[in-house]
Design goal:
Layout lengths: L1 E5 L5 H8 L7 E3 L5 H4 L4 E3 L1 H10 L4 H11 L4 E5 L10 H20 L2 E6 L2 E6 L3
Parallel strand pairs: 1-4, 1-5, 2-3, 3-4
Antiparallel strand pairs: 5-6
Helix pairs in contact: 3-5, 4-5
């Protein structure tokens, strides 16, 4: 498993496509995909949006993330860092950030590589060369 994280619009998806030679068909959008698609997916981007969708549907995002990790250990997960900055007043937004952080920790723990993108520059924070 590989995790690529960083702020919005930092080049995460483009980096993954280039480094891992992924075609657009091999990359699915977490904002619109279904849980079952992630079991066999090669790469998912916007995983933080997948978490938001699960929460809105009343599902346990931590449990789903654990199951995805258990069943697809070759998955490349791309997700935004959403826990920095101003704490939102809205309770649902705060909950989403907290759960996304927990899910990110699960993914990072299970990943062979964790890469943080900053201004289009990859920073290896776990594994790699």
């Amino acid at each position: 498993m590989i995790m690529i994280t960083g702020g919005a619009y930092q080049g995460k998806t483009a980096y993954a496509a280039e480094r891992f030679r992924l075609s657009p068909e091999e990359m699915i959008d977490g904002a619109v995909c279904e849980y079952t698609e992630l079991i066999n997916a090669k790469c998912v981007y916007n995983y933080h949006e997948f978490i938001k969708k699960l929460l809105r549907n009343g599902e346990d995002a931590v449990q789903c993330t654990t199951e995805i990790c258990d069943n697809n250990n070759g998955l490349i997960v791309i997700m935004n860092e959403i826990g920095s900055g101003i704490i939102p007043l809205d309770r649902e937004e705060r909950s989403w950030r907290e759960v996304a952080g927990r899910c990110g920790c699960i993914i990072a723990e299970r990943s062979d590589e964790v890469i943080r993108m900053i201004c289009g520059i990859p920073q290896m924070i776990k594994g790699g060369e």
